[in-house]
Amino acid sequence: MIQSQRSRVIAAVADVVAEKGYQAMTVADITAHAGVSRKTFYELFRDKHDCFLVAYETVAKQLVDTVAASYAKAGSWPEGVAAGLAAFLDTLAAEPSFARMCIVEVLAAGPEAVKRRDAVMGSFASYIAEGARQPNAGEATPPATAEAIVGAIHGVVQSRILQDRTKELPSLAPDLLYLVLSAYLGRAEAQRQLDRLMPAGAERGGRR
Question: Fewer Cβ in 10 A, N or C end of the chain?
Answer without folding.
Answer: N
